[in-house]
Prior knowledge:
23% of the residues lie in helices and 30% in strands. It has helices at residues 27-33, 44-52, 124-130, 137-140, 151-161; strands at residues 15-20, 35-38, 59-64, 71-84, 108-123, 146-149. It is globular and about 45 Å long.
Amino acid sequence: MAKKTPRTENSKPQFWLFKTEPDEYSIDDLATEKNCTWEGIRNYQARNRLRDDIRIGDQVFIYHSSCAKPAIVGLAIVTQEAYTDSAQFDPTSHYYDAKSPTDKPRWLAVTLRYQRHLANTITLAFIKKSGQFIDMELVARPRLSIQSVSIEHANAILQLAGATE
DNA sequence: GCCAACGTTGGC
DNA sequence: GCCAACGTTGGC
């Protein structure tokens, strides 16, 4: 079992990018709910990041995928670290996993709190053509649903996005 | 709706 | 542990 990466008191929050299909769950849904359980992650590498690397206070860019205009659309903050994703044990859930042992759950969730919409959304098309984001995971590893974002890229995105909604 | 990329499964 | 078959993701 991998160990948690210690996050010292004076270390800065890290930035992540979580993908969601807006038809399923959008930034507007998160804004309405204020807090949400980010469940349904069914990929081991993404799961490992939830388990080992994502900490309370980390910042999360919300990204809309599989839609007309894929883009980074909002910001959230992690308010609860990894816990068992209950959907894996719910046979009626789209995220049900019959093979996940109840005594050793495979899948984890975190809790996010809505922060804000980005005044200017940052489209995938822009990210690809701008040149300054070529080493983003979003470009290099587009299928990973939990991505890390460097401080430099995060700052650039926030600047482009405008200060507030 | 197509299809390339890539993650997962399972037989050997 | 390899790798072919299969399933899913997600941009276009």
